[in-house]
Amino acid sequence: MPDRNHQATPASGNRVASFCTDSPADLAKLAETLRSGGLVAIPTETVYGLAANALDEAACRRIFDVKGRPLLDPLIVHVPDHAAGERLARFDARAVRLAEAFWPGPLTIVLPKRGIVPAIVTAGRATVALRSPAHPAARRLLAAVGIPLAAPSANPFGYISPTTAQHVAESLGDRIPFILDGGPCAIGIESTIVALAPGRPARILRPGSISCGELAEALGEPVDEAPAPSSAQEADVEAPGMLARHYSPATPAALFDHGTVPDARADEAVVFQRRPEKAMDGPGAPTVFWFSESGDAAEVARNLYALLRGLDERAFTRIHIERAPPSPLGNSINDRLRRAATAD
Predict the structure, then answer these.
(1) In the CATH hierarchy, which fold is given to the domain comprising 18-235?
(2) Does the N-terminal or the C-terminal CB of the chain have fewer CB atoms within 10 Å?
(3) What is the pTM of this model?
């Protein structure tokens, strides 16, 4: 959270997108927009997504155009339940176990796709990434629209993911008609992505709030950990969020080890995981922020993107960010921080 003098606030901008609720009238309007090939920003428990009819190639292409997203980066398709997912992908016994254990929730499963899924959704791959979101407003919209929704994060490609409707409005409000306002996202970082392929161990492609240990327990077998970010992955992206640079502020960012203090200047910001016990005062001292009073990893994750967005609107020349201590969720937070601090 910000220090005593500095509240990180979003920038204002010219917006044309209308904020909607999950009232029956608004849901009917949003469902008609989506069925007609339009785009709608939607809340999930992880981050806000930019949704389109996943079975409409032209509508999905609009997602790429609005975000400036490269066509090599596949989209996650959101479905209400396992039965709806079966119409889009081939579920083996392991996939069924994971869906039963974690859906609805922050788990994306990469599976062999069926022919109904347009190639643009999967970046031409033979697999599709599926998720059943837990956010009540998203689930009501899925029920109202009756079609699967492709929905990557509702922000310009590579920038910090949005965790409030206001974040979406500031980034894309002049390019989309509607934003379904579901309040702040409860988790704050993107879903865990796991790939299931015949004859291979389950593999985490992107870490999230569901840990490797939880997946292994549900499957009754080992699960391969997520690979470290690498620019070599950019030639063969299996799932969203795997590029080496992603979730990034425009302000240059650098990481420092947990429990240490960086060498920072007065025109720079320093962000700690928890409120520091000792202030960085004196002439030439940087401005200090923290993600959580106590350093609780779940609170850090919820506040991560909102604070980085707020800092990016300030005149800081660099943002120094403390790595999270090792833990299943801390490791996922560090994955996002590594990508945010990776230079072009």
Answers:
(1) DHBP synthase (3.90.870)
(2) C
(3) 0.92
Angle at 172 between CA 171 and CA 175, to 5 degrees: 150
Q: Which of 107-121, 165-179, 240-254, 258-272 has the lowest mean pLDDT?
A: 240-254
CA pair distance 213, 206, nearest whole angstrom: 14
> Terminal CA-to-CA distance of the chain, rounded, Å?
28
Measured CA angle at 11 (ends 8, 16), to 5 deg:
145
76-78 and 192-195: which strand pairing? Answer: unpaired
Q: State the Cα–Cα distance between residues 126 and 74, nearest whole angstrom.
A: 11
Q: Which residues contact 322 (CB under 8 A, 6 or more apart)?
A: 255, 256, 257, 258, 260, 270, 271, 272, 273
CB atoms within 10 A of CB 157: 15
- Model confidence over 33-82: pLDDT tens digits? 999 999 999 999 999 999 999 999 999 999 999 999 999 999 999 999 99
Burial of 102 (0-12, 13-18, 19+ CB in 10 A): buried
Instruction: Report how many helices (DSSP H) and strands (DSSP E) the chain contains, helices first.
Output: 10, 15
List the structure tokens of 327.
């833990």
Q: Give me the sheet containing 269-274, strands edge to edge.
A: 253-256, 319-322, 269-274, 287-292
Work out whether strand 319-322 and strand 269-274 pair parallel, antiparallel, or are unpaired: parallel
User: Taking 60 as the threshold, does the pLDDT of residue 2 lie above it?
Assistant: no
In order of 201, 274, 322, the CA distances from 195 in angstroms are 9, 34, 30
Amino acid identity of 46? T
Domain range list for the chain: 18-235, 253-341
For 213, the token pair is 């240990």
pLDDT at 14 over 80: no
